[in-house]
Amino acid sequence: MLTVSDAPTISFKPGSLGWIKALTVQMTGKSVDAVTAPGGKGRQSVRLQLDDGSTVIATRRAAAARAEAEAGLLQVLSSEGAPVPRVIGFREGLLLQQDGGRNRLSHAMVKADPDRRIALARAAMASLDACRAAMDRRLDVLARLPGLGTRPGWAEDLVSQPYFLSGDLAIARPQVDADALARSLTAAPSRFTRWDARLANGSVQPDGTVLWFDWDMFGRRSGVEDLSWMIADDWWGIDRAPTDDLLAEFIPDETARKLARRLAVLVAANRLKKIAMRLAEAGWTDAEEALRLDRMGAVPSVVDGLCHRMGEIADTDSQTAGFAPWFADVAGALRNRYPTAQA
Q: Torsions phi, psi of 172, nearest 5?
């Protein structure tokens, strides 16, 4: 059961600081001494320091039903021993959950040497695998989750986005069979997936495991999608060969691995489209600031690394090989369009 106080509804404006503090007192019996925003302003979660010195994370989604679904999922997963935050309480659309700590996976991987980076990636994939295994034990819950990437036209939309970026940057479009590539992304909604497994949504625990938080999106598909998002992350920083080894370790089936790589190529292509939009608005940013505030990697060296890695991955599959030169073209075009950047 969710921890829901019997106290009367409070009068503060929903989403306001007073509202968060009052609901926290109702759910924990402790007052709030300080509020910080781990991801900067405009995010849906804040860190609360309580009067006993402990900290919790308070999350409010745009729709209360999404926060309630997130709370329910976390309760199911944590009851099965999965590496996710423990739910402290839920009331009036506000979710209080365990604070997973300040050591974000993205920051830890950037700071790590190559061997340590691979070890962290393995731990992160193992944690997602544990979440999948936990849901396999709760088929009653799994059956009620929504399918993801199942909307008619979803795959076609995903494949088409790089073509728009090509026009924006005045570069050649990726030379691929777009229809065949879209068809190859078809997958039955049979297994649990976190979907958007960005590295910044994992935190490295003192024992080396990775706790995954910010479960705003989850559902059913093939079960490899979250690994696709992970290896396409701006801050992944692991070369193709060890990345392939990691995928083989957690996705034994070659057909499923092909799906994971193809999705990763397209996720990265769409990430570059967002980075290009960010550059048009504000130019390049500092890597430390981007990591600290969980911002996209609009950093010259990060873009170069992402394009290089994903070009190599694309080149291993005939369906995506046309993206290999395209990624290089994107990196060059962004450098040329914003020449004042410092690496």
A: -65, 145
